[in-house]
Amino acid sequence: MSSIAKRNAAGKGALFKRMWDAKILYLILLPGLIHMIVFKLLPLFGLVIAFQDYSIFQGVLKSKWVGFEHFSAFVNDSYFWKLVRNTVLLAIFNLMFVFPIPIIFALFVNEVKNSPIKRFVQTLSFFPYFISSAVMVSILYKLLSPQGGLVNDVLNALGFDSVFFMAEPGWFRALYVGLNVWQLFGYNAIIYIAAMTSIDPHLYEAADLDGASRWQKIFRVTLPSIQTTIVVMFILAIGQILTVDLDKILLMYNPSIYDTADVIQSYVYRQAFSSEGFPNYSYGAAVGLMQSVIAFVLVIGANKISSRYSDSRLF
Amino acid sequence: MHRPSRLFDYVNHTFLILIALICVYPFVLIMSTSLSDGKEVVSGTIYLWPKGINFEAYKYILSNSRLGVASGLANSLFYTVVGGAIAVMVTFMTAYPLSRKRLVGRYVIMLVFMFTWVFEAGIIPNYIVYNALDLVNSRWVMILPMAVNTFLLIITKSFLDALPEELEEAAVIDGANDWQIMWRVFFPLSKPIIATISVFNAVFIWNQFLVPMIYLQERSLQPITVVLYNMIINSSKGGTSFENITVNGVQLLPQNLQAASIFLAVAPILLIYPFTQRFFTKGILIGSVKG
């Protein structure tokens, strides 16, 4: 009994001594720790306003508690289903194109044995990733403008009428997804190209001996070899499916296309920052919290599945 | 046997080069428009190279402070350089202790970082905190919240994890303390990862749009991204509008001026891109292994 207590005390002392010995390390860590507390944990506590009628004058501590009122108000709002529909449809279309195109692109890049061409193609194709959405959407506006935009010039030359793309609800999803593909495909392909360079060359030699054609090698050797990478990336993409690019939506949408372009996050943004009346922080926070919880569950679930899958495959 | 394979190569190379060129074509078109005479732009004949080359559009937008392009660029540059430098320092100083195995509590701290990365509080709770910290209409809002990016923290930590521990033991025997070991032994060895996170932080801050949009209402503080939004996308809502101007015999259309502004927002990234491209690739590969 006493020996256990002694050992515990010794353990505690040892622990304290270990921490004391590392005191400079803790001091070095301090700025990052403060940053985490202030900018990452405090906002999480700020989420309590979702259960209040928060007023900026009364503050978080004195505002009235209302329980789940805002949540039920949102779910029963007639606009709720429209937002859910827009959010889910945009996410699905986005996944349908943004996910497979980098794989196809990587397969073709991998076939290039001439390395200057390979480098040239890769360098240009992932340049758009580093350009701000504000710039990308500005360029899109210029290209699609009904007054002197290149696309409408071409349409007119072919005898069609001008289309005001940015004001047509029917065009929003295609433009959003297209812009995402433009911005992301070269960058997302890097992982697949890296996976392909580590494929055992003997596999290709064996395929050559069997008289396989280029296409057969692509489909029978390259593609199966990167299967694990594809599956893992797909699961992770599912996990992040609800993470819309809010910057891009705010840049691209306007009231005339809310019908297709307004998603949960842009709606939250408007509740707080651009509604005509008094900003409705609590309601917006409640809606945002619902989305965060669903996104969190998806990410954690996807990561669980992906680690299980890649473990059983890799080891 | 050889011919179909060579045909495949020709078609494949042509196809890929074409795709690569399409990727950057809009940027070329913007540059050409900004350098062309407005008379050529209005006749719709600018497809690839500029016609009637002149720099009047650039002179005009940079010398007319009403447009905010010059101050937007200066602000973006300030946020990127100061914010980027602070972010690199703080990120490295956070990753280093967390990579030392003898640091009690490092798993818990890392877990909290990961949790807050995956579970986002959202823009409204952030606003309440930032507002309480007096970050609204303050330059600090572009610097302080960006000081630690969890993704970059993870790749920095995994880089440091992979360095041999014996390095530290040797320094301890020489009587160095943790502060000295970090700067004199590990920092110099971390140059590749420092370069990678510097580039990522810089691009991340340069491209910020939502944060300045929410917090920087004061025009003199706005970065170039918000200036562009007001000038090009939101111009109908009482933003900046242009009339047609003639300077030094060159006609300047709104198109010229907008194109010049867009190009100036891309120019810094274009300038550093050739030298830093390999660090981007490195970043995504490290991130994909660990993330």
UniProtKB/TrEMBL annotation, chain A:
UniProtKB keywords: Cell membrane, Membrane, Transmembrane, Transmembrane helix, Transport
Gene3D superfamilies in UniProt: MetI-like
Top-level division of the source organism's lineage: Bacteria
Keyword Membrane: yes
Matching Pfam families: BPD_transp_1 (PF00528)
Cellular component terms (Gene Ontology): plasma membrane
Residue span(s) of domain ABC transmembrane type-1: 84-302
TM stretches of this protein: 24-51, 88-108, 120-141, 174-197, 218-242, 281-303
Membrane topology: Multi-pass membrane protein
PROSITE patterns: ABC_TM1
Keyword Cell membrane annotated: yes
Family designation: Belongs to the binding-protein-dependent transport system permease family.
Record-given protein name: Sugar ABC transporter permease
UniProtKB/TrEMBL annotation, chain B:
Ranges annotated as spanning the membrane: 7-28, 77-96, 108-128, 140-160, 181-206, 257-276
Pfam families for the chain: BPD_transp_1
InterPro entries: MetI-like, MetI-like_sf
Domain ABC transmembrane type-1: 73-275
Any one biological process term the GO annotation gives: transmembrane transport
Name of this protein: Carbohydrate ABC transporter permease
Location of the protein in the cell: Cell membrane
Membrane topology category: Multi-pass membrane protein
One GO CC term, this protein: plasma membrane
Family: Belongs to the binding-protein-dependent transport system permease family.
Keywords from the UniProt entry: Cell membrane, Membrane, Transmembrane, Transmembrane helix, Transport
Organism: Cohnella xylanilytica
